[in-house]
Design goal:
Length: 663
């Protein structure tokens, strides 16, 4: 099955057919890192060849796709790539986290008792896969004293209401508070006393208490408007007239709106006139309108009329700003959710002053102007005279999207320090001052907190303690806690390499090719190279590899095994599903050695990795590890070299391994 990202990659390659295109350009178009794009390209090489195409790479030029067999490729294109899948954008979920979010959203926001049978069909997954997803959801709920109950083929959440709200706040809102529109507006325009997180809790509490069913996007939009309402009132702007129908005025939603504003008044020390409660009631009740039915359809189905309507405007912005808004679901859904109350205001000639208008015009005039140029022609808006106040509200969505895009281009960094909080904070502050435009510090952790979860999505580890005895799939830059000039130069060199990757062994490794060959021969040896032709198991492979290190200590094997187990408590040592890199957390030998096992039949390493074909055991030296420092990044790159792995598996000998690895 071709994944969504692979489909997108193939479509881009077809668009650039017969011409070279760089991986950095593809990365920009897909909103991915250059490294990730190269990984996908490696994975697609064989797939395209099987279906009538050839993917060619040329140093300094990039990649070029050619169609060799038109009939075979056409069949592949129409059946597997361009044809529509039966499921919508919401349900065409390939990652476990996406499926978890889909199920949790149904359970918490739609108050749905989900049928297992319906989920199989909606998500297009097997029962086994669904059970794995549900097991992960149960683990997520456990710290909140919540249970996922399965009774008569139905799923439901069991637990106290306060615990349910706690989970919803943490899972659906906490992360988005840091990257969504409200975070951008709060950080750029609003006073410190307007606490977005506190407003979210108030809205969530009152809506849950009244059993109002709202999506997380509607809640985010409402919270933002309440924050701007506070700013507007403090700036002296007040709604003079905001009429609503009797249906809304005497509804449950109106009662909830009053309770929300009463709590906000108490917290924010500001008084709200009744018109403001009407405005909040509209946000809560507008889900009943015909327009919102279209809006909700747009949120659930990628090809809805409303989303089609705004896509050209988004593309227009991309062409001028160099962004990738067409793939920013947060922006698209946010704009769609914004259109509902906007249309109500326009239809009823309600003027809503924007307290941020002058700030937006003075500091972001180009984006403000582009927003008007892009969205004014869409059919839904072109018949109306829209005030600059309203355009500024819409421009905020575009500005927040631009902020997300800018952050997505930054190197994502994990800072590792000793346990001292003061030194960690000092290093973090220095890094932010030096690399604010190029780096996003995701977290600051201690050595003992390193695990697989912490490494997800990280581009580089910057550590004030040496991690040279551990192998990670992520590059490591070792620095002083004081971040001296040499450290800064090393980090800049890494950023430059990530932005403009070199081509060829000599440039990539920073070592002449003949020196790399010498290094290889220092750590690898034919006597430490094994081929397992029949099925085997992890312990048998490790035992043989450790024996080949030829150490006299009778307890050496047990010590090495214990060290490997300890290393695996930090994070996985299986990279790319097919390669395991067992190694100790501390050196046990006086010489740098690497032992290799090739498994011609898949080896089950653990329950999550059952297709291992290469086991590369590293034993660092108690003294210096100059050779392993050179080899380690080559091993990490080898993980992505699918073609090289297949060459070695086809002819599993030490001679072939050496030739292919050094090529």
């Amino acid at each position: 099955m071709v994944t969504k990202k692979e489909k997108m990659m193939i479509k881009l390659l077809v668009e650039h057919k017969d011409n070279f295109v760089t991986s950095s350009k593809l990365a920009k178009e897909m909103n991915l890192s250059d490294k990730t794009v190269r990984k996908y390209l490696n994975q697609l090489t064989d797939l395209l060849q099987e279906h009538g195409g050839v993917l060619e790479s040329k140093p300094g030029h990039g990649y070029r796709f050619n169609i060799i067999d038109t009939e075979v490729f056409a069949k592949f294109w129409y059946q597997d790539v361009s044809a529509k899948n039966k499921c919508t954008d919401v349900t065409q979920l390939e990652e476990t986290s996406d499926r978890e979010h889909y199920i949790l959203n149904k359970l918490f926001f739609e108050n749905a008792n989900l049928s297992l049978t319906d989920l199989y069909q909606q998500l297009f997954i097997s029962k086994t896969t669904l059970m794995i997803v549900l097991t992960e959801i149960k683990k997520m709920l456990l710290p909140y004293d919540l249970k996922l109950e399965q009774l008569d083929n139905q799923l439901s959440i069991i637990g106290e209401e306060q615990d349910i709200r706690h989970f919803m706040m943490d899972y659906f809102f906490s992360d988005k508070l840091e990257e969504g529109l409200s975070a951008y507006v709060n950080g750029s325009f609003l006073e410190d006393e307007i606490n977005i997180a506190e407003l979210t809790i108030i809205v969530l509490d009152e809506c849950r208490e009244a059993k109002l069913t709202l999506s997380d996007f509607v809640i985010h939009n409402l919270v933002l408007h309440i924050a701007l309402m506070v700013k507007r009132l403090k700036s002296g702007y007040q709604l003079q007239l905001f009429p609503v129908s009797a249906t809304i005025k005497y509804s449950k939603e109106a009662e909830v709106a009053v309770r929300i504003l009463e709590r906000v008044q108490e917290v924010m020390k500001v008084s709200f006139p009744i018109e403001e409660a009407n405005y909040i009631a509209l946000h809560l009740a507008v889900k009943q309108s015909a327009l919102l039915e279209r809006v909700q359809g747009a949120i659930d189905e990628e090809q809805s009329d409303l989303e089609k309507m705004i896509k050209p405007a988004i593309s227009y912005l991309d062409s001028y700003m160099g962004t990738d808004f067409v793939h920013d679901k947060v922006l698209i859904k946010g704009l769609i959710a914004h259109l509902t109350p906007l249309m109500y205001r326009l239809d009823n000639h309600i003027q809503l002053a924007n307290p941020l208008l002058e700030d937006v015009k003075n500091n972001y005039l180009e984006i403000f102007t582009l927003t008007k140029e892009a969205l004014a022609p869409i059919p839904l808006l072109k018949e109306y005279q829209i005030s600059d106040d309203e355009w500024a509200y819409i421009a905020l969505h575009i500005m927040a999207g631009f902020e997300r895009f800018t952050n997505s281009q930054k190197i994502r960094c994990l800072v590792v320090c000793a346990t001292g909080y003061g030194s960690a904070l000092m290093l973090k502050n220095r890094l932010e001052r030096e690399f604010a435009g190029n780096m996003k510090i995701v977290d600051v952790i201690s050595y003992y907190q390193i695990n697989e979860e912490k490494l997800k999505g990280i581009d580089v580890i910057i550590s004030s303690i040496s991690l040279s005895n551990l192998l990670f799939p992520t590059p490591v830059v070792h620095v002083s806690v004081f971040l001296n000039h040499e450290d800064i130069a090393n980090i800049r060199a890494f950023i430059d390499k990530e932005s403009y990757p070199a081509v060829g062994n000599e440039e990539m490794k920073g070592e002449p090719i003949n020196e790399i060959t010498k290094v290889f021969d220092q750590v690898f040896h034919q006597e430490r190279f094994f081929v397992f032709k029949e099925e085997t198991n992890r312990d048998e492979v490790l035992s043989q590899l450790i024996d080949s290190l030829d150490e006299d200590n009778p307890n050496f094997k047990n010590q090495f095994m214990e060290q490997i187990s300890l290393r695996e408590t930090y994070s996985t040592i299986v990279f790319g599903n097919h390669l395991a890199f067992p190694h100790p957390t501390m050196p046990l030998t006086f010489h740098e050695k690497i032992a290799v096992a090739i498994c011609q039949k898949p080896l089950q390493w653990d329950k999550d990795h059952q297709e291992v074909r290469f086991v590369i055991l590293m034993s660092p030296s108690k003294d210096r590890n100059e050779n392993i420092k050179v080899i380690s990044p080559m091993l990490v790159e080898f993980v992505e070299k699918i073609n090289k792995q297949q060459e070695i598996l086809a002819e599993p000998s030490f001679k072939e391994f050496r030739k292919v690895f050094l090529a």
